Every structure is written in structure tokens, then in C-alpha cells.
Amino acid sequence: MKKKLFGILSIVTLTIFAFSGCKNRGTTAENRNETGKKILKCSESFALETLNPHQDYQGWYTSIYGLTEALFIMNDQSSVEPMLAESAKADGNIWTIKLKEAASFSNGNTVTSDMVIRNLQNAGKTNSRFAYLKDCSYQILDDKTFTIETSEVYPTLLNDLASPELAIVDLDNSKDMGSQLVATGPFVVSSFEPGGTIKVKRNSSYWNGEVKLDGAEFYYMPEPDTSLMAMQNGEIDCYTGVTADAAEIFKNDPDTYKLVSIPATRLQFYILNKNRLDDSVRKAINLTIDTKAIETYLNGTVTSTDGPFDSSAPYGKVTKEPVDIEAAKALLEKDGYSLNADGYYEKDGQVLTINIAYYAARSLDTLATLMQEQLKTIGIKGTLTCEVDPDETYIATGDFDIALYCMIADKAGDPYYFISCTLAKGAPYNCGGFSNEKTQKLIDELKVTSNNDRRAELANEIVQTAIDEDAFGYVALFNKTTVMRNNVVNVFENCPFDFYFLNANTDMN
């Protein structure tokens, strides 16, 4: 109750702040002229409760704030690049990693092999998603070189080591990492209110070049309209997660704002239940669902997709058949369905009724309604079932004809995570009866294959099979939309990953 009340008070306070700031304080530019410092002001929809990057997803936000860095980093093309690490080489299930000589913490202490290993082990103990790290074998070769031995060949280890939750911090001097963090990023904490505002300032000892900004302030604004008002009133300089309506406002004032929107990594998709739907019905559904129309309706917040990954990725080269209403109807009629007086197909006296299960987040409620309307146009009756927790209801039970879901598909520049979660035998989201012996062998090969070209080839064949068998439908990737004042540059606006924002090159020209 206390947390909920704090959230309400925060919203009220920030709304007043957004309405009254120009009157009482003047524009942000004027304030900076008075202080002589470049302080970037931003909004964030997530309330950070702890600075410990190894806990849950907190590392996403310490990365956003420019406080922490990992051994590797994802670039704008979704590829892994060295960050604190200089290089990495695999020999079977043993990885040898060399650290950059200059890599150091904000207190001047050098990043060493011993400290990195202790961080990885700590993250393995703290974060269940990286639990395997506590069971790996580590060996220090020298102060800047070490090995990681996994229990089996693990070709995507570097992708994991780019995860912001595996940030490297000075464990000996961070004390309580929840509030006192010594890390390697271009910024350090100036002040931190759990669940509220966080202020950062330039790391004067940053190891990787000049830091352009003097600092930044991130205000907790969970409501998108509050961020819009604050941006219009000059209280903030940039933010991500711009709504379609706000984007239209910013587009109409190009002299003040820059708007960048790119397909990101969070996917809307649906599962077709092969245990309850005939081949012809599933095919007819996929020939009817018009993802381009859904993209248009959702007004710039998503980009329609043929597969689970962006088509620019080497493992995103799949295709699906175009919308063809007449072909969909012909399939149903060939299977013995005929239109009744109400305009719905029926067979043996039973109307063809499809239960669409969804949960009301990530625009899935809107998607469910749009799909229901599209199916009606060809004579399929759709009923909607909304659940609060899909993982405890229709995903767990298989009680659906079509199951809507949304998740990050491309977690770290590699296809295996999503494929293993949705298409592998026994996977949690393979709950619609998809089973293909050849595909499972390809998934098993993908798990241990190191060659990136072969990984892409395998992923494309696996996903294409799921599409061709009408086991899944991939709808759209959410766009990452960032707005900046025209003088703001370099906030990772062209990177599809949500966990990057502030960096050494961020500036206010």
C-alpha cells in the first residue's frame, strides 16, 4: 500500500511539475545557462528500487543510466562487440577472455580477471536466469586473461555476457550494491531515490574516452501523457516509449524535436492450437490475419513482421503467404464448411467458432479485437477470453484455439532463445501441439553450433517450418520510439535494444 501511495503521489507531483515548470523555473536551456553545465533531463517509466545490476532486470536500468557496463555490448545491427573485454576465443566448451588493459572502475581500480569472475559467480547466485554461471569452472591465466569452462559447448556465451544484468562492478568497494555502486560506466550516481528520481554525474575517471555531458536526471513518469507534457513544457529533453499520439505531436514540430522509430525486439505473436484446429482452418486463419492492417491501426507503435526476428538480421529471412481471403474461403469449403444465413461457416450443424485467448497488455487486447473482426470477414466466429496471467492459464493448460502472447524474441542478437522457448519439444510456449522430428534435430544442432552463418541457416529453416505448418503467426515487432530535442545526440536511438541510453558520447550541442 505504501508503494502504491508513493506511486500515486509521484504521478501527481510530476504532473504538477510538468504543468508549472516553465512558469516557475524557465526553460531547461535557461537553467543550464545559469549553472554552466550540460545536464540532460529525461523521463523513465520504470521505478528503479535498487542499483544492484545483478538482481532481476535491474541491470537494464543501471545500463540505461550510463552507470554500468558488461564485458560485451550489442551494437545497432544486433551483433556482439567487445566492451570491457578485448577479445574472446572458444575451444570446445572452454572460452578464453582477455580484458582491455585500460578497463577500470570509477574509483580508479583496475578491472581484473579475479573481479570479473567473482561478478559472474555473484550474478549466477543472484539471478536465476544466469544460474548456470555459478556452476561454470573458471581459471585465472593472468590479471587480464581468464577462462570459462561450461558443462557443454555453449556458442552463445558472448551474447549472454553482453546482457546488462552481467555488469561488472567493484564488489569490494560497492558495499551495499543496492544504494552504493562502484562500476565502470561513463556516469556515477549523484543521488538516488528508490522508486523515484535518479541523478548521475560525469565519471571523471572514465576509462573509455571523454564524457560529453556533465550529468543527467531521470524522473519516474509511469504515465506517457506526463512525459509528453514535460517534453512540451521544456522540463525534459528526451525519452523513449513515445506513444502514437505523442509521436504525431512531435512530428509536427521538426524545428524543436527529433523523432526516431525503429523495429525493436519485443514481438506480438499467436499460437495456433494444432490439437483443436484442422490444417485447413489454421491455414485459413493465417491467410486472413492482415498484419499490415494491424500495423496501420496501431499507428506507428509496431512494425508488421513475417517472422519473430527483424528481417535485417541474418536469422530473420523467412516468408509467409500474403493475405488471400478467397483462398481462405476455398480451403474451408473444400473441407466441408458452408456459409449459413448469418454469414458464418458451419459444418455438421456447428458454427466454426474460434476462441482467442489473450491478456490485456502490450496492445494484445486491441490485437484480439482486430483479429476477431478480420476473421468475421471470412465467416469465422471469434470469441475472446481475457486472462490476467497467461502463463498460469491458457499457456499452461492449452485451453485455446488461438493464444496471443508478447515477449522479447531477440534477447541478445541470437535466435536460439526464442526458438528454444517456443518451438522446441517441451518448451513453455510450444503449447499448441507443434511437433516436428526434423525441426527438433535442427534445434539441437542450433544449440551447439558456433558458426554464425550456419546458426542463421538453421534458425531460418526452423522458423519457416513453423510458419509453413501454420503452427504460429508472427504479427509485429514493437517499435522503439525515441524523442529528443534537436540539440540532443547519441542516446542509442538507433539501437533496437531497450537497455541502452546514456553513454559517453551523449551530448547537448
From TrEMBL:
GO terms for molecular function: peptide transmembrane transporter activity. GO terms for cellular component: ATP-binding cassette (ABC) transporter complex; periplasmic space. Pfam families: SBP_bac_5. One of its GO terms (biological process) is peptide transport. The keyword Signal applies. Residues 1-20 form the signal peptide. InterPro entries: Peptide/Ni-bd, SBP_5, SBP_5_dom. The keyword Signal applies. Residues 80-422 form the Solute-binding protein family domain. Keywords: Signal. This is ABC transporter substrate-binding protein.
